[in-house]
């Protein structure tokens, strides 16, 4: 079943890339609040056809990913989402005129190769075991804790930076993916009675707050950064949850663990580089500094 799961995960990555492009375009059309992404913006998006088209793409991709997670370990499925970063960059160049610089090309290539190595290693060592009852609850408590922390951050910070929003979304959706894998195994292997209600609630809460963070991240910067975060932070943390909490990497030799850790660190570093040198990010920073200079000059004359 693993080859079929990998194919479905690739299709899910395609849906994520197109969904991000359309939803970012919809958010850019509707987001005019000086304090950032707010509830009114979200309500207007529900009437925006471009945003809804993106939602459809994401929905289809999510279905494919859920099925993939029911067929193979989360350590194998989630990292494949990195394919969407490459697709997203190509879509940006085609439809938004993104100038693909040498740094962007290098960052995307390093990210893709690192995640590919991660998948190749994890596919050899990952194993799935059914978790029921209280032994399935640690993932839920982690999801609740992260949801609470990031909810406080977004409520207390007027305009959180895009990198923080992407980090929060990536961690929360890693919990969603891990919980989806866990619950689907409970359902298909042990029947509806084995499904943990606590895990279902945690899945809904993490998905809702993570979705909010994704939309806020679209309003705070380019969609490629959102994709980069979701396809690196999400799978790496999902693998941590899968290996440490669900025991999918039990018995893996230390060299393999070190190799996986190294590729994960390299992929994260590539995302940081992308967040600093993306042309849209640089342009926003120039505009912000120019605005501050104007305000400072006006204040000094007064």
TrEMBL record:
<keyword id="KW-0472">Membrane</keyword>
<feature type="transmembrane region" description="Helical">
    <location>
        <begin position="252"/>
        <end position="274"/>
    </location>
</feature>
<feature type="transmembrane region" description="Helical">
    <location>
        <begin position="138"/>
        <end position="157"/>
    </location>
</feature>
<feature type="transmembrane region" description="Helical">
    <location>
        <begin position="195"/>
        <end position="214"/>
    </location>
</feature>
<feature type="transmembrane region" description="Helical">
    <location>
        <begin position="164"/>
        <end position="183"/>
    </location>
</feature>
<feature type="transmembrane region" description="Helical">
    <location>
        <begin position="104"/>
        <end position="126"/>
    </location>
</feature>
<keyword id="KW-1133">Transmembrane helix</keyword>
<keyword id="KW-0812">Transmembrane</keyword>
<feature type="transmembrane region" description="Helical">
    <location>
        <begin position="226"/>
        <end position="246"/>
    </location>
</feature>
<protein>
    <recommendedName>
        <fullName>Magnesium transporter NIPA</fullName>
    </recommendedName>
</protein>
<dbReference type="Pfam" id="PF05653">
    <property type="entry name" value="Mg_trans_NIPA"/>
</dbReference>
<feature type="transmembrane region" description="Helical">
    <location>
        <begin position="66"/>
        <end position="92"/>
    </location>
</feature>
<dbReference type="InterPro" id="IPR008521">
    <property type="entry name" value="Mg_trans_NIPA"/>
</dbReference>
